[in-house]
Amino acid sequence: MKFGIIVFPGSNCDRDVVYVTRDLLGQPTRTIWHEETDLHDVDVVVIPGGFSYGDYLRCGAIAKFSPIMKQVVAHAEQGKYVLGICNGFQVLTEAGLLPGALVRNRDLHFICDRVPLQVESTDSIWTQGYSTTTPIELPIAHGEGCYHADADTLDRLESNGQVLFRYAGTNPNGSLNNIAGICNETRNVVGMMPHPERAADPLLGKADGINLFKNLI
User: Fold this and answer.
1) Would residue 86 show up in a list of annotated catalytic residues for this protein?
2) Where are the domains of the chain?
């Protein structure tokens, strides 16, 4: 399975994802500069965390106009896999591949921490290796991680089982319904604020994030 990691000006977690997919899991991986327009050889697109275009205007608001994003949308529409992590989640909502928006944290502070998460659904190729009864722990690092959507959108997400991850215990950023990660209706596109790639190597003390990538493979 070949992974393509999108790199925007301001991305800073792309090498972390490459380390997981290429070095830990031995999968073919290439970084894709945002001005490229070819994804024909890629099975999975990952939009990593960081500060694409310096987060000017809004997080992800400029990145959605990059040439590569037309191809990412087409990739998703073909049923292929797309994962957006942190800033990548913001980009996916701006591009319309996922509903809702990520806005300023409740207390208007940047948060860098490890948080417990409840896996809400294992009815997804991304989460099939997790358990809904055993919380996992992943790092977060964001200033605009508060998930917001209108009531109808929230109802659809909940009724369709599109909420994959929820903050357990304390809600760090004010996200509605404690939402930490969602998928689209066809379940091939996932966006999440926590960083699975930062908790994928046992040397870091926690490796709960590696299953997200292993499940897909």
Assistant:
1) yes
2) 3-216
Q: What is the pLDDT of residues 78-130, one digit of tens each?
A: 999 999 999 999 999 999 999 999 999 999 999 999 999 999 999 899 999 89
CATH number belonging to domain 3-216: 3.40.50.880
Task: Indicate yes or no: pTM above 0.90.
Answer: yes
Tell me which residue has tokens 């899991």: 25
Catalytic residue among 86, 120, 144, 146: 86
The answer to whether 197 is a known catalytic residue is: yes
- CA 67 to each of CA 108, 186, 206: distance values in angstroms, whole numbers, following the listed order: 32, 24, 36
**Residue 172: half-sphere exposure toward Cβ, Cα within 13 Å:** 23
Burial 195-216 (b: 16+ CB within 10 A, else e): bbbbbbbeeeebebbbbbbeeb
